[in-house]
Protein: Family 10 glycosylhydrolase
Organism: Halotia branconii CENA392
Amino acid sequence: MSNRPLNSVKSKLFCQRLFAAIFSSSFLIPNFGSQPAQAQVTKYCQLSTAAVKAKENLRLSAFKGNQDAQNRYQQLVQQHAQELQSCRSRTWPQTQALWLRLYPCDIRPGTLDYIMDRIVNRGYNQVYLEVFYDGQVLLPAVANPTVWPSVIRTSGSENVDLLAIAIQKGHQRGLKVYSWMFTTNFGYTYAQRQDREGAIARNGKGQTSLYVVDNGSQVFIDPYNPQAKRDYFQMVQEVLRRRPDGLLFDYVRYPRQAGSDSIATKVSDLWIFSQSTQEALFRRAQNYKGLELIRRFLSKGYVTAGDIAQVDKLYPQEGEPMWQGRILPPRQKSILSPRDRQPLLQSELWLLAVAHAMQGILDFVALASYPAKQLNISSGVVFFPGGNQTVGQGYDSRLQPWDRFPTDLEWHPMAYATCNNVNCITEQVQRVLSIAPSNTQVIPALAGKWGGSVSNRPSLEAQMQALRKFAPQLKGVSHFAYSWQYPENDSDRKFCRFK
């Protein structure tokens, strides 16, 4: 892990002090008859209406058992895959992805073909398939050794491997299929297990995320907890057995809170009060004075001059209290009075607590992406461009240190800002590009639909045109989501409403 400071810190002094509190990773890997392409596609690599209709008619005929239609349909699928590849190779962006959630009803024959065809028709060459979300995993029930229930729990469908089938159907159409997964948000089902109670993150008020997130389904775990690490590591390995083209890690952060709680200004606001996180924090002490002051700061939220004087008397053989990342100011003398030292020590203890919380997220990302790296499979991290910002001496409650994510991972900033035009969206992307090292692959996620505005967001055409100016630095863009572009189909599939 790099030791560079958080780029969003306002003052130079504050930046320098946070830099001193950020430390290298303590993470350890556990042992654990065809028209030419130019006549078929539009400038966005979308297939013509005639091509779409011809393919769908063949699909329907093939589904009814017409063997000739089946052969022609497969030929057309291959032709469109080649046309898409050709178009994307010469059209910005070279990577255009769509976010997709599947449902149990999608096991019906022909459904995945229909979905994947639609994705190709719109000019996409990648799919981000949601595999782990809301406390359930897209693995077949008979081959799911994880602690989470399978998405498909319908009697008689225990053997259906929707993830493997979706990857196969995508590949047939020239699509790369990424597995998109929640990360530190393990879901409500995890909280129901008594044997995992200690793995759940807690703040200094004794709360878990169930008490602070509106929908009551998000359960964020302690990223330092060994059990939580093992559970997630096993799930990632099972997903990788299906050989997706990449992994995407979402919810790489702490809970997002509302109102005044959206800014963490005191230690009790931080999610560092579960046992494993506290023990890891205590291990950052480099002498007994440092350990004792960390303990007192964590228990009360502050240290007094009296605390410092008591600690000096407890360990008179030691100099200044020390912990990882602490660098003594020039000419710092332990002969300064406890009262003179108190403001600096309290400030540095606060920075230590914030840095420790952030490091937990960074370590968990390293753990999660490790199995994919071993297989030479791409990984990416999904984040909010504002998730690492400071407000005064406080921090965004999500504590999402995306500016310190590894540069060998893809960066997927969610440029979801709303201001009735494209300006706030491009500002978010510009901020990420200005911070990301030059070798980082940045692939912004845009929210919207083609051909019109939605939820105060301009059309995808308008957003894409605005981002075009960032090429060639920006080579990929993704769109959230299939459900926004095809809301009726998404709803029908979700509730099994089929004609």
Remarks:
- The radius of gyration is 26 Å.
